[in-house]
Structures are given as structure tokens and as C-alpha cells.
Amino acid sequence: MKVTILLICSCLAWEGLGKPQFPDQEKDPLFWNTWAQRTLKNALTLQKLNQNTAKNLILFLGDGMGIPTVTAARILKGQLSRQSGEETQLEMDKFPFVALSKTYNTNAQVADSAGTATAYLCGVKANEGTVGVSAAAVRSQCNTTQGNEVTSILRWAKEAGKSVGIVTTTRVNHATPSAAYAHCVDRDWYSDGEMPAEAVQAGCKDIARQLFENIPNIDVIMGGGRKYMFPKNQSDVEYPGEKKHFGTRIDRRNLVEEWNNRMKNKNANYVWNKKELLSLNPNSVDYLLGLFEPGDLPYDLERNNETDPSLTEMVEVAIKILKKNPSGFYLLVEGGRIDHGHHDGKAKQALHEAVEMDRAIGHAGLMTSIYDTMTVVTADHSHMFNFGGYTPRGNTIFGLNSILSDVDQKPFTAILYGNGPGFKVVNGLRENISTLGYGKLNLIINGVLPLACQKIIHLISFSFPFPTSTPSLPSLSSGENNYKAQSAVPLSMETHGGEDVAVFAKGPMAHLLHGVHEQNYIPHVMAYAACIGQNRDHCMSSSGASSLSAALPSLTALLTLIRLLC
Fold first, then answer.
1. Catalytic site residue 279?
2. CA 2 to CA 5: how far, in whole Å?
3. Whole-model pTM?
4. Which residues are named in the active-site annotation (predicted)?
């Protein structure tokens, strides 16, 4: 421990000599001017717009991925590579067009994930808590469903002959994916076991059932939610002894078995673990149903690498299957557990989920082309998450601020929540986080010291292990995975935020996503780019013009021949 204290003091003294906490090249104006000029040249190439017809459409939805989350994830991505982080580029940062989306629901200033999913998938704003129905439908009132159904871009693509897929880290019948295929006045009606008896008797269908009945033969479905497909009290294949994972269906239907029977002559596969998924040959699979957990998939930090696929792995398999269709495909990908991490006040879980989704975005980019694939990345809503406090360059995103509060003289982390479970009062005062299991030494090292010092001490810690009575030195991105950041207002669950969210776009017609738009504008642009749904007139006129142009040489030759003969 003495060695560490000496190192800390030495590093602080070294910093006091005026050593900058950033690369030397950044002191030279030429560095910044060159970078800006290079960016300008790239921007000028965008003057020639990509007006191709999009053969493929991919929507990446980061649930709860507000702009502060994007920025913090960018820093984390860099710090995971031992960089300071601020100058790092996310894959979505590289997209040439960016817009802002207004997320409110028809009846809510601060939106929920169901009403927003109806907006960016069906092109219609809706009430909170409802999926695939217009604002004329009332949450939980079954009799307001019929006649108020709205269809999604996934259906428009399927009807146009494209292959379609859904990939999520949540349940496949959770709010975001369900708006792609279901029409339900309550997002919580996962199976008939979660529905009021009167709603079932009135003829309303649960969301899991609609997944298999509403849009026949969705080509790829991957995520969690296994228990909602099986009869009540049927044990789970992966957790046979855990009752919380037993089937929930009161109607005793086995939806997976029904799917298998219906698809047995169609090159279809059902898988429930990573080994089965990765053993498939996508060239011989036309339909895939992958249900990897009874509920949501685990956080990426807690994922079992042997049994649970990553989001990137699921996306890779999905694209390999879908791209075989010569007419193209539509793929919805949800990084759904960003939202869950924030609700729990677990910023580390949320940000690692965002980094994993960005990895999947990059991988999808390698498997497709900007010339025929429109890719959009956005969020359904934000969260009461933020970070700040005049932290120095390279400060670990999970670390302390470099100053104490000038009111209660206690340290505080850069990351804070406006509300949530992280609110703690001890003896009438704000909790002193340096006394928590989060680790006083960890906070000092990761929150105050320069990045170079953090690296030195991190390396030394492996050579001189500490006694068990003192906190060990973690990696630069560490800290308790489930540490709940402090919040200003006590709530059992942190809430959504109401500000606009970013929309990143690339590929055909991506320039149409610009400025500030209503959230329901997004699927209309994507449909226009692909010539599906109600946006086909421009495609027909272009096709007609092309046919005429192609015919003109032949027509001219014919007229010339007639003139010569006559």
C-alpha cells in the first residue's frame, strides 16, 4: 500500500510540473487545422447525394440512448482501448447525416418505449403503453383495439417481397420489437398469462401469439422471452429447476412447437443457445427463431460467452440469412438493455450495452454497402442520465470529479442521475461515496489522477498485490458493475428523459434525415428510400423514365431505317 501511495504522490507531483494531460501533437494548431480540413473535404463529397433505391433497410434502436449516453459511450469505447476517450469515434459518429427526433407520445410529454416504437416503426404517433395502434386506442381497454390498428414498415417490407428480421437483447415481445408486428393496447400483455381475463374473453390477443400470427413467416426472430411461448408451469430447457422461468401461457399452447410444425418444410431452425446459433450454416437457413433466455438477455458485462450470443453475433447471423433474398431485406436491431441499466441507475451496465450496440453497427456496415443499404441509428427516448463537473481530459467516465462539493465537502462522481435508486441520505446528509464498496482507492485513482498515472499504478498492482484488507486496483474501466450512481430525487426506478434524441443515417436517401423532425417521420423516409409502403410514385416515375431512355436509341434507329427504305 505504501508503494501505491508513493506512486500517487509522485504522479500528482509530476502533474503539478505542468505536464499536459493530452497528446503533444494537440498543442500544435496544425494538428487541429489539418483535421478540420480533412473533415471539410469529406463533407464536400456529400454534395453529390446518394439517391439510389435502398435494397436493404437496417434500423438500430438504442433503447434509452439519449445524447448524453452517446457521448459517454464514446468516451468509454476509447478508454476500453486505453485512450483518453473524448476524441474517439463511435461507428454511428461516422454516419454523414444527423437529425434530431421529437419523442413525445400523443398523451405524454416524456415518452415510453411502446408509443415511441409505434411512431418510428408505424409512422404514427400513439399513446404511451400501446403498440401498433393509433392514438384513438386507450391503454388496457381491449375494446378500443379493433379499427385502430396501424401497420409497420416491417410489414410494408414483407409485402414488397423483402425478407424481414427482428434482433433484440430484450424479450422479442417487449415494447420495441412488438410494435413491428403486434396491435395491442397494453405493452405488458406478453402472453395471455399477463392479460386480464376479460380482455382474453373479449378477443384481444397477447403479444407473443401475435408474433407468430399477424405477419406470416417473419424470416429472422432473435432475442429473449422464451417463457411466454410455453404452457404455464412448463419447465425451461436451460433453467429446469427455477420456477420464475417456467412457461406462462394459460391457453396451454406451445408456440415454438407450433412454429416448428408450420415451418418444417421451409429450411427453418429453432435455437436456444449460442452454440446452436453459431453452428448453423446461414446459406441453408431461410427462417430462424432464436430464443436465448426466458426473459431478457443478460447484460453484456454478465453474459455467459458459452451460452448467450452477443448482439453483434446475432446481427451477423441475421444479415447472412436475410441478404440471400435478391429483393433485399428490412432488419430491426434493438440494443434494449441500455434502457434497463439506466432505470436501475447502473450506468456502467447501460454504457457497456451502448458500446456493444455500436460494435454491432460497425459489423453490419462491413457486411453491407452504402450504395444499396440505408442504415439508421436512433433512440426511442432519453434518460435522466448525465455527466459533468469540470472533469479533466481522460478522466475515467465512471470516476470521481477532480473537486469536492463546496457545500458538503464530499466527493461526487462525474456520472449522476436526476432521479432514481441512487439517492442515499446518511445521518441527514448526502452519502459519502468514498466509503462505499465502490472503492475509495478506485475512485481516487480513476477519478483524479492523470491517465498516465492510472496506467502506471494499474500495472504496478499486478506486480505488488495488496493485502486482502485493502481495496485492489481495478482496470481503468472498472468499478462495481452494478454500482448505482447518485441521484437527486429518490425513486425505486430512474425515469426517462424528455429531450430530443439523435438520428444518424447513411446510405440511399439518408440526406432526408436532417434538422428536427417528429419521430414518426423516420419510417416514412426509410420506406421512401426503399420504394415500399405508400411511397412508390417516385419509383414508378423513375422506372418509367429509365425505360423510355433505354428505348430511345432503338426507336431512333427504327425511324432512320424507315426513312431510308421509303
1. no
2. 5
3. 0.88
4. 113 (phosphoserine intermediate)
